[in-house]
Design a protein that fits this description.
Blueprint lengths: L6 H17 L2 H8 L13 H9 L18 H13 L6 H14 L2 H12 L5 E4 L15 E3 L2 E10 L6 E6 L2 E5 L6 E6 L8 E10 L1 E2 L5 H36 L1 E2 L2 E2 L4 H30 L4 H26 L11 H12 L5 H13 L31
Parallel strand pairs: 1-4
Antiparallel strand pairs: 2-3, 3-7, 4-5, 5-8, 6-7, 9-10
Helix pairs in contact: 1-4, 4-7, 4-8, 5-6, 5-7, 7-8, 7-9, 7-10, 8-9, 9-10, 9-11
Amino acid sequence: MDFALDDEQRALQDAVRSYLRDRFGLDKVRELYETTQEADETGGVPPALWQAVGEQGWLAVLIPEEHDGIGLGVLDASVLARAFGAGTVPGPWLSTVLVGEAVRLAGSPEQQASWLPRIAAGEVKGAAALLKPGSSPAPAGAPATAEGDALSGRLELVDYAGVADVLLVAAPDGLFLVDPSASGVTVTPHETLDRSTRLFTVELDGTPGERLGASTPEAHQELLDRAAVLAAADLVGLARRALTDTVDYDKDRVQFGKPVGSFQAIKHHLADIHLAVTMAEHAVLYAAHALDLGDPDAPVAVSIAKAKASDTAREATSAMIQYHGGIGYTWEHHSHFVFKRSKRLEYAYGDASQHRERIAQALLDGQHTSDDDLTGVTPGGSGGVQGTGVAAGAA
């Protein structure tokens, strides 16, 4: 069954897209790209943009109302992530949201009261180290070790650790909050091809951490699933942007007296990509909806979404470069913004192969109960998804 966002989610999507288009367009992204990490006094987080992220409630989307949040679901957060992907928007939105989700899912009441209102207001920037790079998206891939509340380990490719007010660190026996200025913390910046983010290595040497009171492997896994869905939403936003810009360009670009978009080889390939992007958008929406419902099949839905989004974004952004011709290969064109961001996120929180292995294992273990559960939802079901018969790509 096809399904779409409800009216409130569409309004949220339109508001975010309008703000980003009017106040943080590609010219601002280019300024960030052209500023080296050493010369960037903002740490890759434009102050006006981060202020808006807090003021607009985009950090509060998953935080309960009793902690000054909006109290929405992962589906609503995925709407934001998709818009940020389409705009190649910089900043630690995702990592800060994950810190908030960790505190909400596993923190004590005291920890929730201390952290969640500040996260909702944009007063805290977060960084998250939940997996070793290249690890399968499971608690066994935790990057740190803990002896009591003392943490050690080398945390690689951590987004925005250099500007973070708090680090969320996973160890095999729990989730911890770490003060980046604490003893035993060393933060080293890395240059990265995708300059819409800033990456760091964080080394912990007996660093004191604040253990989240109810953290368990199950809470860690749920957090990884939410991270994977939001990364997948970013990827489908990138894929849709790449496809839309390519179609628009190839309608106007003329060779041999005809628009190149009219050539059979190109238009058929772009039609195939459109179908793939639409299906990936559906998969992400359903996975987010399943997480909101606590559906037993949610882990499988998450892995389907991340695998499809990773594959589709790679195809769409590669086609964008190819079908823009010579200009698509230049620094002056924005095609490399979406390509580089998609390449980074393709491997975040599990790549396509790892998620397909997870799907296969779930099927072999009998954890997945019905093929029908992954194809649609009941019309009018909770979580904001409606059985409207409208493709998600039209949202």
